[in-house]
Amino acid sequence: MAKKLSKVPVVVVGMGWAGGIISAELTKAGINVVGLERGKERSTADYFMGHDELRYQHRTELMQDLAKETITHRNSPDQRALPMRRYGTFIIGDGVGGAGSHWNGQTYRFLPYDFEIKTMTEKKYGKGKIKSDMPIQDWGITYDELEPYYDTFEKMAGTSGETVELYGKRKNDYPTGPMKKTPTLEVFEAATKNLGYKPYMVSSGNLSESYTNPDGIARGACQYCAYCENFGCEYGAKADPVVTVLPVAQKTGKLDLRTHANVLKVTKNSTKATGVIYVDTMTGIEYEQPADVVVVASYVFNNAKLLLTSGLGEAYNPKTGKGTVGKNYCYQVSSGWSTALFDNQEFNTYAGAGALGMEIPEYTGDHFDHKNLDFIHGAGIRMFQYGNRPIANNVVPEGTPNWGPEFKKASIKYANSWLKVASQGASMPHINNYLDLDPTYKDEYGMPILRMTYDYTDQDKALVKYMAKVTNKIAKEMGADHIITAGEQGPFNVNKDTNTHNTGGVIMGADRETSVLNSYLQMWDVDNVFVVGASAFPHNSCFNPTGTLGALSYRAAEGIEKYLKDGGSLVKVK
């Protein structure tokens, strides 16, 4: 029997970017918030001199323990799903800050095209352009409506960048200038300019200069130490909930942050959510936390799982197309890249940062003609200088033996003599790509674990073939002596594919028949539940999701304030 606690106005499940932004905005408005995080407390002190590739990159210390809770995966509904036992295709953060502590910092806005993708595609190419097995829909909000929230997120994070003409209009420039343009990036810049493209420095959550945000949070500039993704930032230069929004919420005295608190379900009566049940993972004691509003902000997979295990909303059925919870799970398409190797040229690739990069905009969204193509949307063609660490850095030309003296010789020769022209493609929904509860496997608390049914589609494969030609052309223009190009997209492999951008499953939209949430990320069916995060995306763009997640989180916080002020009802969408 769970121990019942005193009722609070708002309980937030998950203390990453979404939960941190919600907590900061509500507590600044004078609203008491209980924040529940299943992992431990974290601070920059935890990462001092923590440049340990084995510990963080390969043994994934900041991530969820897959021995206690994982997901199952299958490529199609007619297969048996099996548990994911080691991290490969994505990594799930654990602890205060969540994925916001171990991300790279790449901070994009989605395109105006993304938010009205169905309308714009059909208007330009006709209704037949979108295949019947792709349940693409508009988001229920436009870019122009979301732009002020993007601006708020960027000012809070101190995002460093430069304006790109082809993208949506901006009210303000980025609060800090772009990161350093290194000699490595200048190679990409020169090649793409020679080909007629307009390369730009990628917008970054790694500060290019010292910055104080509107909340008075001061942070120092990036040191280009090369330890960003899978690592916490010891300098606080990388935008992280732990050094931005959470200190603001804690300073108000209105945030009750409880760590080691794993939420098992959302409780409800006939019409409303009444709170949550969580277990203290240190003692094993279960608690019931009643609340007027429940905010589920616990990453894509757990957001969907909590709704499904709690009986909130109708589960998606791929056979009938009915139901919305679990629908439109999307990923991203990372093949199509080309690696350029140079026989007589070396680069200082040991230094870098998670968002130190350049990109060309010409192949994003609908910025090129899709009339005679077998896919819609596009890809970001980019080069990043993350900083090559020794364990994972082992690139050799094709045809080199996989072991032995020749392999060792080539590994040493090309250690600092290769550059990657990457392609990150958009992911469109498919009727057979979805999330539900596994009927066989359970977690350590006896709850069903989440099952992912997902594979790359014909749309994805066509996009990869097209983008591979672009990246190969750029690699040639860079003067490469050897080029390795990933020109074919094979089946999805949960243990190998390397993009970490999971989206969908609890999607937003303009009506309850095709979506779970309105544009304030409020559930249509249970109006005192807000589900915040990339789980709300009806499809995934070709850009990293954090900037859009942050913007939607600020809008959701505004919706929660309206809900509490107005006495409880569906928030009127503006």
Structural account:
The protein has 574 residues and is of the alpha/beta class. It has a single domain (10-47, 92-566), classed as FAD/NAD(P)-binding domain (3-Layer(bba) Sandwich), CATH 3.50.50. Helices cover 23% and strands 17% of the residues. The protein has 12 helices and 20 strands. It has helices at 17-28, 53-58, 99-102, 112-115, 117-125, 143-157, 183-194, 245-252, 299-310, 405-413, 458-477, 546-566; strands spanning 3-4, 8-13, 33-36, 71-74, 82-83, 200-201, 211-212, 218-219, 255-258, 261-268, 273-280, 286-296, 338-341, 357-360, 379-384, 418-425, 434-442, 448-453, 482-485, 529-531. The strands form 4 sheets. Strands 1, 2, 3, 9, 10, 11, 12 and 20 form an 8-stranded mixed beta sheet that branches. A 6-stranded antiparallel beta sheet has the order 6-14-15-16-13-19. Helix 1 (17-28) runs parallel beside helix 12 (546-566). The longest helix is centred in the C-terminal third of the chain and has 21 residues, at 546-566. The two termini are 43 Å apart. The model has no long low-confidence stretch (mean pLDDT 95).
Looking at the overall shape, the CATH architecture is 3-Layer(bba) Sandwich
> What Rg, in angstroms, do the CA atoms define?
23 Å
Number of domains: 1
Mean pLDDT: 95
Kindly, what is the distance between the CA atoms of the first and last residues, rounded to a whole number of angstroms?
43 Å
Class derived from helix and strand content: alpha/beta
Percentage of β-strand residues: 15-25%
Major sheet details: 8 strands, mixed
Q: What proportion of the residues is helical, as a percent range?
A: 10-25%
Assign the CATH class: Alpha Beta
User: Spans of 5+ residues with little confidence (pLDDT < 50)?
Assistant: none
Q: State the CATH superfamily name.
A: FAD/NAD(P)-binding domain
By DSSP, the count of extended strands is: 20
Task: Enumerate how many helices there are, as a single number.
Answer: 12
What sort of overall outline do the alpha carbons produce when their principal axes are compared?
globular
CATH topology term = FAD/NAD(P)-binding domain
